[in-house]
């Protein structure tokens, strides 16, 4: 296990290049299972979740080659259709393999993904949609999902909520279903657009990503040699920008897509940061450290304020003058990390899905414990903005979504070390 030891007070200044997006590479890696050829992915982030996904693909019989941010997946011959339970449980989002594996093999056994720190995270919409396409699903109650489909048939599906994972699973299953599938109320996140771009390189006719209505014309056999570059990680970019804002720093992030984090940049500007957009993929932020509260931030599906930036924003607002209100509309339990922020002296009260943050002049170092990925990132921001030396345990959560965070932050002036315990 390791801890991050952070001595706050340094202004974060410098340049960061944004890596590929975790939440884009994971569904694209699942989509490589559809292909009886070799898929080449570039700009893949080096994260624990990506490693786990590659272990799962390997266990299914795929040939894997990884050189830095380049990954080759040869799925020409699959030897299994069961996802090893130990691996599936390491990563909740292993459920996005379901649609692709069912389409390719006609049968999938996967452990039912449990809930996590931020909510129950059910998969009812995934299963309902796959059943509509002709899948037979058993075993929901005893922890192992057994899904079978002699044949998947395209159909019209209306999602009760624009679920990212459900949209991805349906797109993958529909890619090899007979006929057309229409997904209404589909998620519009940029990662959906990236998955559509990859599926098109596999020869799948798919359109509508980003519009809320996605059409997929299934094809019986997929054999292609696609090369695909993963889009930049908008949440990693937003996280480091929030850290620079919280420390009164000046940060340039390159390789980012401005519109992918437009809602986050809007809030940072309203707090008092100066933001410059150079040619849409270089963003410069200046903060004098004396920022003001936001009357209301409500998380919502893209292009609204992203739930994955909610904890980081609350950490920043802890030091903004005045009272801010943050409402979390996507997950039912995504404020647990605030108990840790309060150890730093943050003044936060949580009622259900609403957090009220009263900005304080000073945060003081403390011993903190990360229990989920983005909550952990929020604790790092709090510690960077606090006086004194804090330590954060549970770094394994942070490593799931941030490449060598301590190296990146040190490169822009943070006093941060990873200490093995
Ligand atoms: C994806 O999770 C992301 N993960 C999450 O990022 C992100 O927070 C989330 O989308 C929302 O943007 C990956 O892409 C790997 P959802 P996902 O299905 O697909 C409910 C991070 O930190 N729901 O859009 O699981 C669900 O409980 C992670 O990188 C159902 O009720 O999210 C939640 O309340 C965290 N039934 C809401 O919908 C279902 O069948 C949104 O979930 C599916 C979802």
Explained architecture:
It is found in: Cytoplasm. It catalyses: phosphoenolpyruvate + UDP-N-acetyl-alpha-D-glucosamine = UDP-N-acetyl-3-O-(1-carboxyvinyl)-alpha-D-glucosamine + phosphate. Its EC number is 2.5.1.7. Residues 7-409 form the Enolpyruvate transferase domain. Helix content is 31%, strand content 25%. It has 421 residues and is of the alpha+beta class. The chain folds into two domains: 2-18 and 232-420, Enolpyruvate transferase domain (UDP-n-acetylglucosamine1-carboxyvinyl-transferase, Chain, Alpha-beta prism); 22-229, Enolpyruvate transferase domain (UDP-n-acetylglucosamine1-carboxyvinyl-transferase, Chain, Alpha-beta prism), CATH 3.65.10.10. The strands form six sheets. Strands 21-22-1-23 form a four-stranded mixed β-sheet. A four-stranded mixed β-sheet has the order 2-14-16-15, covered by helices on one side. Strands 4-5-3-13 form a four-stranded mixed β-sheet, with helices on one face. β19 and β20 form a beta hairpin. α1 runs parallel beside α2, α5 packs parallel to α6 and α6 runs parallel beside α7 (190-201). The longest helix is centred in the middle third of the chain and has 13 residues, at 234-246. It is elongated and about 65 Å long. The protein starts with a strand and ends with a strand. The mean pLDDT is 96.
